[in-house]
Amino acid sequence: MLNDGEFGGLYHAGDVADLREKLLWALENLGELKEKATAGRKHVQTANDWDDIAEQTEHVYQQALEN
């Protein structure tokens, strides 16, 4: 689950004012945004077992081909 502000910013779908606010913040805080992106990338790399994900994906494909 993503938390707003943890690794970047989320906006409410369809809310143009909220999107504008988040984009303006990003433009004014490029250094902080880069730090959040780096932290997010590291989180994905360490919080996931990619071998397990690959095996699960292969299993799904095999089931799809059997049907």
> How many β-strand stretches?
0
Our Rg estimate from Cα atoms comes to: 18 Å
**How many angstroms does the end-to-end distance come to?**
32 Å
Mean pLDDT over the residues? 90
Q: Globular, elongated, flat, extended or rod-shaped: what is the shape?
A: elongated
Number of structurally distinct domains: 1
Task: Give me the strand/helix succession.
Answer: HHH
Backbone structural class: mainly alpha
How would a textbook summarize the main sheet? none
Low-confidence stretches: none
Beta fraction of the residues? under 5%
The number of helices is 3
Which range best describes the helical content: under 10%, 10-25%, 25-40%, 40-55%, 55-70% or over 70%? Answer: over 70%
